[in-house]
Design brief:
Alpha-Beta Plaits, two-stranded antiparallel ribbon
Length: about 650
Amino acid sequence: MFIRSLITIIVFVYSASSFSHQVNNNQEWHLIYEYNLRDNKDNALSMLEERYNSLSPGAEKLYVSSLIYDFMNRYHQPYFGRLIKNQPEYSEMEQSYVHALNDESNGDFIKASEHYLSLLDIMKKKNDINGKMIFEYHLCKVLNHQAQYYKASYYCSALQTHVNDNSKSILPLHLALRVIANNQFFRGEHNNALAAYLHLIEVFPNHGDISAVYNDIGNLLKVIGRFQQSETYLLQALNLRLKSSNSMKLAQVQHSLASLYLEKKQFDLSLKYFKSALTILKSESNSYGLGLTYIGIGDAYIGKGNHQLGDSYLTKGLEFAEDLENQKMKAKIYLALAESYYQRTLYIPASNYAKNALSISKLIHDSQYQSSSLFILSKIYAASNSYKTAYEYYQTYSNIELANRDIDNRKAVEALDLTKTNFEQEYKRSELFNLNRYQALQIETMQRQSVAYNFIVFSLFIIILIFIYLNRKTKRNAQVDSLTGILNRAASISTIKAQPHNNNSEFNSILILLDLDNFKSINDGHGHPTGDLALKHVTNTISSKLGKYDIFGRLGGEEFIILLRDVDELDVKYRVESLHQAISMKSFISESNQTLKITASFSYLATSKSLYDFDDLYSILDQALYQAKQNGRDCIIDAYNDPIDLPSVVYSSTHS
């Protein structure tokens, strides 16, 4: 109570005098403004007006105009920027900035980013560090919203550099660090993002509204499966926002909590928070939020087994999606409805909804929703005994999944190219700037510029080398399975396909497909960490038996592929059996210090022909592996010579 009273006295003293003249520290001024914004909106508006009027046209005045816009928007009042006499250039910039803020608020991120890029270009020409930071911040944030995470990372990185170098930043430190951490989160750098969020908590200003950071951390922890910690942070965010007057922020954290409990299958708690958020969103007439919340409620009721009620909420969400013309939301709802009808074995409506989702995802070029639509269609047709159609959908799904990985890698490379291009543009601007100064400065200044020029060229050369290194490192990492350290699916297949034809008919290539037996029971009985230990155990066991030029990869789950090269045809059976026995004979220690063993089913084929037609060979091995499972597991099937009792159509099966 004493500390709170002391802060109140300090705020009162500042309010009674001129903020713009007595508070020189921007961070301190912003802290006092946020305090007033929570407790005394009239004082907060007075602070904004006084600060704005006291500043000369420039980056700081622009930033204060954005705070005025946020204030007016908070209380549903219009704001279009201001015209300042004899300052047409600045007035145009401010109006463009406010237009961008308004576009961003309305969800038109493309228009907003166009405005921000134009304003950033102006600040670069002026060489205004604070101005560049403001618009790097907005571009980092708005590109995150557009899911252009790799492109956003360029502006986030530039912002991080300016934050480190500028101790007198106009932009509050905690705002900059949050969008940078968000970008790491969205790009899947979960450990780095979590470390950044925890650092953000350490530097967050006292008495600032930290609830948004807690909400971000809670969502991150949910994604990486740390549900208990996620719940702790989200409940902290909820407690803080219950004390706030901002109902939309309260609805946001309620939605986050509801999504967490939905993930944990605690459907009653999920419904409680979804419905609380729904009440707020209805009062605010927030159509986008209402659409998402109806989807969440529908999913929760379906999870409880009340499909009819769940479908009705999904249908309500579909109405909002159609009003908003939000194709992605419509695709999400169609997928949820398809899953609901599939669970009830109502395959005709299930397939219709899944096909609607597929059509929309193709229309909006969303590969993630295309992949989900194709996968559920393969499940529906397999359950309907239409195995050929199911296989065709599953094959298309597999191709898209592989293509998505290539796209992610390409986006990373494009981000590096964007960085290189921007650095080149920066260099050209710097060169022009130096040329203008060259005409006005004396010979001594020209000599200093020559030194600076050489330094820039050297720095650019170093930066390009770094980006080349990072590009190569990214490509290498993209080929490795993160859990086991061996080749991942895409890298395994491409490496096998690239193997040269064996000219010596006495030596064969042995292609082995293996699947761990009863792996699900290990996960269920001993926990997923023990399952991970089992995968690593098998990987280490097999790797110790392979030659330098043999190929070993994980196709996914508990399925592995092995290529043994240049094997004498008399040794084929022995080599395969030795690998099979190596797995079954070795034990490993579980997370609870129990000694466990695991077995595997093998299918193999020996050939001296080219392996380029891997898909055909894999299909043969897959059928043989299915036969091994049918034979009772822990056995070996020669895909070319042993009898295989399968239907004529190709099955797409998940091995246990």
